[in-house]
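Pasting as-is:
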Amino acid sequence: MAFPKNSFILVFLLDCYLRWNAWAKVDMTMKESVEVYLGDIADIPCQFVFNEQARVVMIQWFVRNPGNGSRERIYYRDNTEQKVDDGTEYTGRITVSDIGDQEGVLLTIQDVQLTDEREFFCQVNGMAAGSGEGKTHLRVFDPPEAVIEGVLAGISVTNELPSRIVSCEARNSFSKPNITWYRDSSPLTPTHGQINVVTLVTCESSGFYTVHSELEYKVAKEDKDALFSCEVSYYVPEGLRTARSKVINITVHFPTTIIELWKESPQGLVKEGDTVELRCQGDGNPPPHFTFNREQEQETALEASDDTLVLREVIRGDSGVYQCRSLDLDTYEQVTGDMQLTIHYLDPAVVVPKDSEILLKGESLTATCNALSSIIHYQYIAEGNGVIIVVIILCILLLAILGSVLYFLHKKGKIPCGRSGKQDIIKENPNKDDIVVETKTNTKTEDAGLLKGVNGDKNGPSDQIGSVDRSLGKEDIKLMFGVEAGTRVVDRQLDSCGQGAGDIGGQREGPTSP
């Protein structure tokens, strides 16, 4: 079979072309991806090597449109011209330059946007020297902004299910971030009935991601001092990065289990006429409403202001046990705290008989002196015919000693239980002569002795002097007594010559001055 002459020519040309293409080649080198932060500058290199000298080289850059996947040219260059294509997203934002002494070019993108995350193609054509194409995926990152917010209302420990206590939001992130919750420094993981985490991811029209996470937590009393925070993790060109939010404390409501009641003022002992302030405090949150009352009058509420009860110008009848009570509105449980309040007092000495008494021969008279106090109670009793005036002296001494004892115990902070003393003065072998005895009480002297004893007067009991006026026939004999605290009191009966006729005395029981 014979072939036309022209057919041989066509076959020869085709063979030469195939052999030439198989021999002409260009090697392309491009990175698989380039990572950059939003707003930064992105550099995408494109390197190529021809295996033979290329007389003409054309270089073009294309991008893939995210919507339909089609290509769009953004740059062109040959031996005679170069230009950035008009009307694209990259007009005015890109430049192309040579890579040093190597064969290749560098595409530079200014002010990288989220929409720049796409594939970039570099196409090289050396005509007879060959052609080639490579691509790089540009990845854009933007660190998220972590914003944490706690709920404003308090969370009760009595809630049966976990309550929403705090939320965290990572805004304007690219790519999508993850959120982890922390209590103090310990990470929290979802636990049935205790911890729930609800996450919502939103992709904005701008391409940014917003991740919203809510922590549902079953609070306990121990969480009142806990600090909660969220950590946002995201990928950047250098790897995985994290950002921790600020820490916040939540308000935990828990019932009152303990109430303490104490005397705020005055300091030390309380005496009649003082103003007393009692304070009450519980361990619940929020602080409960307090009600004050006396233990013996539990149905009668005392007027108080919040956690403070003020008693003005107290008297001894105000002594007793005071209570502070609170009622939890969630559990309806009542908690009570109490304290013993003692009002101290010191009454004026009372001498019986109060008025002067005249005794005839052979008659008897019993005289008493009482000093009533919340701390110590002294009572002196005198019986006899001629020594009644001694009672007055002993009362004065009693008040001086009692005042000194109260002052001493007040300074030392020690208050012993009350005790009593008793002194009997009994006259033995009375004189057969008629004796007229007149007793006089000086109220001002008694009161002065009381005040001096209470105020710690330094004058000793020996400064107190009593006198007895006796009628013995026609002569008047005046007997003066000088008595020191804690010594034996002696009354000596004198005859008409001033000689002692006998001793009459009594020993005082109770505290004595050293």
